[in-house]
Amino acid sequence: MSGLFSTFNIGRSGLNTAQTTIDVTSHNVANVNTEGYSRQRAEIITSRPANATVGQVGTGSQVQAIERVRDSFLDYQVRGESSAQGQADVRNDMLYQVENIFNEPSDTGISSLMGKFFDGFQELSKQSQNSNARTVVAQQTLALTDALNHAATKLDELKSNAQMLLKANVTDVNSMLDQINSLNKEIMSVETAGQTPNDLMDNRDKLLDELSYKFGIKVESAVFQGADVKATDAGGMKSANLVSSSPNTDVARFSYISSIEEDPNSLNTQVITYYKLGDMSNEKNKQIIRVTGLSAEEIQKISETRVLWADESGQVTKADGYPIKDNDIILASELMVFTPKSGEISGNISVQADIENYNDQLDKLAMSIAFSVNAIHSGLANPINTGGDPEIDNVPFFVNSDIAQYDSNNNLINVLETLNGESGISAKNITISKEILEDVMKIKTKTHDSDYGYTSENEVDGEGDGARALAIAQLRDTQLKVQSFGVTILSRSDMFNTSKGGTTLSNHGMDIASDTSGMQLDSYYMDQIDKLGIQAQEASRISENQETLVGQLENNRESVSGVSLDEEMANLIQFQHAYSANAKIISTIDELLDVVINGLKR
Q1: Which of 108, 148, 321, 405 could form a disulfide with 427 if both were Cys (CB 3.0 to 4.6 A apart)?
Q2: Is 253-339 CATH 2.40.50?
Q3: Which 3 state secondary structure label does DSSP give 89?
Q4: Sign of CA pseudo-dihedral 346, 348, 353, 354
């Protein structure tokens, strides 16, 4: 019913509405610098009208809800591109570090040291009787092998760092998922009570943004503002829910593989050790499973990926979510490895393959240098030549540092083991023999040194004969099938096995025939450096482009959801006037009521 008291209530409702809008504006201003905060606004509607003789009469206004200003499509775009940025950032950072390890071009790089190595032999060929020239060769060789050792060791360390980042990512992701799940429950509880948990939803969205940087995610809205979260690359997992709005649905988590080794007691079986949820702080989390039927490629992939699907407790599961117990034996097809196609985790996985590839190329280079130089230095195509004279390479120039042993005078004491271990030479263990470093006069430089175990026994050639040193120097121009070392060429004898496509060693073991399908040592190495440069440049370009793209999308989202102080100040003035106007209405009604109540007495 209309009347002064009804008008009084209308003014009161307007006053309450203005107060609420001022509160909302104040909350927006207070959170102008809060990361992840979404601007809020009060949705004002008219109150239910009252019936009167002249029709319905308005009863004022009320705040129906306080809503977040949020565009879900922009959230989808930001999270999709954030996953791509996570992958690009990791690859850019890691490949930049690989470039720093090789440090090319520079005076101290492997390419420069390789050139100095061959230059040393070139000079030695001119003055082979000079101990100073021999010392230069020995020290330049040591510098080259040290550089190869250092590069290989640093690449291994970088790969280990990438794996430790994977472990950190596993623990971070599991923590994020737990937080999102907890917020999800709280949001749904508040919504069920008829309230709008805007700030809680902001916190959940912020965590979802951070999670999307780790790997691609799919977020689906559910009842009571709940959210279901899944990985976009679930592989063969049938139950890939990471966060569920349903209290009765199982959710998945991730665990971290600490090691994968061959089972010594079972053929074609790998022992995989993992820690639940990536938590290595407690040995109780350590679990072991045995997997049969894994190929060499699958083993390599698992050693780089190291992330397994697990249940909420961290117990590794099969595709149907059934847990695999400690010490269980499973088939290779039952092991569920998490291999996202984008995100920081994907970047860590893919860059390990790149690092391993560059380490493999270094090994090929080290093997080709060691086999070819040792062959010319000794004149033997086979380090243990049962049919020749001498029978073995008594003074190998390059040795495997993991195997070679010396006496107190640095004389090699396990020659046969060292020669057999020559096939295991890699960039990490290649070195010049300490016997040669101790006595540089043992370097073979003469034409007929191939007929003697030691150059000191050669009385056929003159002291100034440097033909063999010149032959080693000319290796820089020889085309070798470097790409086949470690693949089909596993030993020095393989290199000169013509039935397997190998090359030939002639002229007292001083001439290695060029292979038309091969390449020069320096060219091979520089090809790998060029490839690295292109990869690193591409990674940098993609990272910058993604950063720009994500920045633009975040700016678009900020223009919708962000707080503008100018806009909020304008709103505050508007709401202030509304509050004052409604207060004036109440004051006017108060005066009118005074007239009615007190004025009628007079």
Answers
A1: 148
A2: yes
A3: helix
A4: positive
